[in-house]
Amino acid sequence: MTLRKPPAAPRTPAAPQTPVAPPPRWAVRAAHLTALVVLPSGLWRIALVLGHPAGYTEAGFEPFATVDAKLWMLTLSVVSELVALLTLGLVRPWGEVVPRWIPLIGGRRVRPLATVVPAALGAAALTLIWATVPLWWTYPHADLTPTGNLVVGILYQPLFLWGPLTAAVTVSYYRRHRARHRVRRRG
């Protein structure tokens, strides 16, 4: 007769020492909106990858027909969306405790500065990168049809909000965790 071990209790995430206030509703909405503002330009690039000229003239579309260009556009679209989705970590529990399924560090608390610093730097970089998007129509785009120029400009306009939205959600995350740090230092 073999003895069976009783089943192990399920592992639960580490409980915070001092509770962190839940994110404000506006921050949750802003985090979700961040993922959405990246989507139109990504879908447009995926249309190019699939062989649709998506507003380009015949000659303007030629450089996008290569395998390298398609791989680059697909990678850019996927990575951009994944980076935008990381903003959700600033309002979700996995932004405070690493999910258990991640090897080596799963279940550990996330240090707030390890989140705030990269998020703030990313928000600043995104703000600088996309700052000129509202000026889209002031630059010539000879490789686009007039309709394509209008549509592409419209699809890229939401990217102007990516950096500021990320910054706002980052500030909210920082304030919530700073308040917890203050309570812990007093106690």
Care to describe what's here?
- Residues 1-21 are annotated as: Disordered.
- Keywords: Membrane, Transmembrane, Transmembrane helix.
- 55% of the residues lie in helices and 0% in strands.
- By secondary structure, the protein is mainly alpha-helical.
- The chain has one domain (25-186).
- Helix 1 packs antiparallel against helix 3 (67-86), helix 1 runs antiparallel to helix 6 (162-186) and helix 4 (112-129) runs antiparallel to helix 6 (162-186).
Task: Write the H/E string, N to C.
Answer: HHHHHH
Shape: globular
Kindly report the average pLDDT value: 88
Uncertain regions spanning at least 5 consecutive residues: none
Percent of residues in helices: 55-70%
Region (Disordered): 1-21
Transmembrane segments: 33-51, 71-91, 112-133, 153-174
Keywords: Membrane, Transmembrane, Transmembrane helix
Tell me the layout of helices and strands.
Blueprint (H helix, E strand, L loop, with lengths): L24 H25 L8 H4 L5 H20 L25 H18 L16 H11 L5 H25 L1
Quick description:
The chain has helices at residues 25-49, 58-61, 67-86, 112-129, 146-156, 162-186. It has 187 residues and is mainly α.
Features:
55% helix; single chain; membrane; 6 helices; transmembrane; 187 residues; mainly alpha; 0% strand; globular
